[in-house]
Amino acid sequence: MILKATALGIMGTFYICYFSKMLSQKKKCIRTDQLGKGKEGFLKFIEIALKITTYLLPLVQVISILIYPEDSCHPLRIAAVTTEMVGVVVFALSVAQMKDNWRAGVQREDKTNLVTSGIYSVSRNPAFLGFDLMYIGILFAFFNRWLLFATLFAVCLFHLQIVNVEEDFLFEAFGEEYLEYKGKVCRYFGRKFRRK
């Protein structure tokens, strides 16, 4: 029961962080949820599917945690829940460092700044990395085929969002500044070192 309660508590912390940020920005008249707005075709599909998935996957996760037949503290399961916790920390840091530049989705009319310091100096997409680590941690701790399918679908949608929407938007908005940043920092984790 301890591992299940821990996983649910970590997951709850993640969503408290997510929705608290959205509410605090709403009080400042910032529309955080931009998913699907002003998009057409494949881009709209990606963002709408991502929005639906990020609301349905927690349901699949909670059910998977609650119905998991055992609650043994096997080292691999503890490592998986630790991965979930790391994901929450990465996400919380990314949202905090983005300040009011953070959005779920992009809107070309919004004026934001390119954040490249802190956690963004080792990941161009730490919020997405945080989601992925949390999802993967839960998957490996409470594995079942439905959770596997839902997790893989969500992770693929996040990747499609990054490469088809986010990166194009950032290039349009910040041009050479973004290209220079992209040349130094990896999409998910790590820095690029160039030989001279």
Describe this structure in words.
By secondary structure, the chain is mostly helical. The chain has one domain (2-28, 36-102, 115-184): Four Helix Bundle (Hemerythrin (Met), subunit A), CATH 1.20.120. It contains five helices and no strands. The protein has helices at residues 2-27, 41-67, 75-98, 126-141, 145-184. It is globular, with a radius of gyration of 17 Å. The model has no long low-confidence stretch (mean pLDDT 86).
Describe this protein with a few key phrases.
196 residues; mainly alpha; Four Helix Bundle (Hemerythrin (Met), subunit A); 5 helices; 0% strand
Summarize this entry quickly.
This protein has five helices and no strands.
Can you lay out the helices and strands and say which pair or pack?
Elements: H1 2-27, H2 41-67, H3 75-98, H4 126-141, H5 145-184
> Strand-and-helix sequence, N→C?
HHHHH
Q: In this structure, how is the largest beta sheet organized?
A: none
Give the name of the CATH architecture.
Up-down Bundle
- The name CATH uses for the topology is Four Helix Bundle (Hemerythrin (Met), subunit A)
